């Protein structure tokens, strides 16, 4: 695969947070290696997202995941960039038809890391757990109804600083983000046996314009098929649930010998109601995620269902 010379330098759009920049650099390095490009053949273009400007309120309250994608989408449409690098966890379930996720990089550690206590059981009675993620709040309250969940936003470093300043006693962060920032040795990763991650956690996705054949072909060289299968199954589950960043959905996919296993939990935001389910289906069976979604909603009853259908169009 070689790109036509007039397409160089490639412009990779990214948010400017340290985590976003680390992910863009990883993408650039992989693309450069796969396409045998020189140092200066790929340019990183920083785009300020509204989610980065508004730091004081929970994301779910101020407009959802579009706050991370809107400005990058616009830059793609206006041809200011050729591709956009995203944490796929933060990318809305329904995307504009004109864009395509042309590459999914090898997925990193999918686990959440608990910081401030050695285990969930060891968190002191009544402790303040800082998180703005509905899934983390609901999983925590489900396991520990006695703790107090308080909103905690900001980038990874900000959240760690707020913990160090005792604004909260405990927090949860993605292992993938910590690792990409070189923050190893922080906290304890929670086993996926009893603490499921968010859909697409730990996965980096690269979008480009659907009609940009050259860019699609270039990005295909760094696409990791098993990671794509897993992440797309999790996004399909989210879509079938009408899920958004308001919905406490925890899910993990494993894939072996053409069989996909999707394990998921839906919760009410206060953690009081919870339904778990697992479904195995063939990798060619595009309806597997929707069947698991229907099963979870049926068994979860009205306490669960109202957090899904009711918010189906929130983003
Ligand atoms: N919600 C913000 C966000 N989006 C992606 C990551 C980490 C990297 C990833 O999960 O891919 C994080 C931080 C966190 O949840 O700790």
TrEMBL record:
This protein's pathway reads: Porphyrin-containing compound metabolism; protoporphyrin-IX biosynthesis; coproporphyrinogen-III from 5-aminolevulinate: step 2/4
Tell me where in this chain the Porphobilinogen deaminase N-terminal domain is found: 10-216
Recorded GO terms, molecular function?
A: hydroxymethylbilane synthase activity
Q: List the cofactors.
A: dipyrromethane
EC primary class = transferase
KW Metal-binding (keyword) present: no
Q: Which Pfam families match?
A: Porphobil_deam, Porphobil_deamC
Q: Which reaction is the catalytic activity of this chain?
A: 4 porphobilinogen + H2O = hydroxymethylbilane + 4 NH4(+)
Does Transferase count among this protein's keywords? yes
Sorted UniProt keywords: Porphyrin biosynthesis, Transferase
What does the record note on quaternary structure? Answer: Monomer.
What HAMAP family does its record include?
Porphobil_deam (MF_00260)
Question: What family is this?
Answer: Belongs to the HMBS family.
What name is this protein filed under?
Porphobilinogen deaminase
Give the source species: Novosphingobium tardum
Name the encoding gene, please: hemC
